[in-house]
C-alpha cells in the first residue's frame, strides 16, 4: 500500500502531461532502498518477506520514475536521470561489490544492515522537502494523504516485525518513519482546508469599485481655440477703432490750434498706455499754449 499510494499522483501526471510541482527524489531514494534491502535479505535466513516486498517496490518505483522522466521539463529530466544513474546504478554497485569483496559472513551482513538503516532513514526523510513546501505555501496539493497514512502504518508493522525477528536494522528506522508519517498527517489536517477558507473569505469581501467609477472626474471646460481667436480679433478691432478715434480728435485739435499733428510716437504712446484717453481729455481742458508746449515737447 505504501508503494501504491502515489499511484493517483502519477495518474494526474499522465492526464495533465506535466510533473507540476512534484519531486522525483522520494521515488529515486525508495528504489535505491528496495535494491539494497533485497541484497541484505539474500544474506539472511528466513527473509522471504523482505525479498518479496522490496522486489515489488523495485518494479513500481521504476515505473514511477519512468513516467516522471517522460513528462518532466527538460532540465528536471536531465537532473533526475543523473540522480538515477549516480545513485541506483553507480552507488548500488559500489556498495554491492565493496561489501562482497571486502567483507565476509556476518560482517558483511552487519555492514549492509547499517547501510540499509541509513538509507531507510533517508527514505523517510525524503518528504521533508515537501513538508517544508506545505508549511511555506499552506497547501497540501503535492503531499497526498494516502502516502503519509500508509507510511506511518507500514512503519508500525515493520517495527514489530524487526522487533520479533530481533533485527535492529529493520526495527530502528521505522520508529523515525512512524514519527515523520504522523507529522505529515498532522500538516495535512492543518492545511487541507486553508485554500478553501481563503477562497470563501475572498468571496465574502465586498467587491471594490474603481474610484474613477464612483467619483467620476468632473467635466472641465476644454480649451477652445476658436474662442481665443475671436477674443484676439475683437481686441485687435477695438484697438484699431481706438487708434482711429484718437487720430481724428488730434487732427481736429491740431487744426483748431494751428500746430503740427502729433507724430507716430505720440500716437503709439497714447494707444499703448491704458490711460491714454483720460490723458487726452485732460489735454483738452488745458490752455492752448500749454497744449502746444506738450505737443512740441513730445516731438
UniProtKB/TrEMBL annotation:
Subcellular location: Cell membrane
Ranges that cross the membrane: 21-41, 47-71, 83-103, 109-130, 142-162, 168-191
A cellular component term, taken from the record's GO annotations: plasma membrane
Keywords of this entry: Cell membrane, Membrane, Repeat, Sugar transport, Transmembrane, Transmembrane helix, Transport
Bilayer topology annotation: Multi-pass membrane protein
Presence of keyword Cell membrane: yes
Stored Pfam families: MtN3_slv
GO terms for MF: sugar transmembrane transporter activity
Biological role: Mediates both low-affinity uptake and efflux of sugar across the membrane.
Family: Belongs to the SWEET sugar transporter family.
Name of the molecule in the record: Bidirectional sugar transporter SWEET
Higher taxonomy: Eukaryota, Viridiplantae, Streptophyta, Embryophyta, Tracheophyta
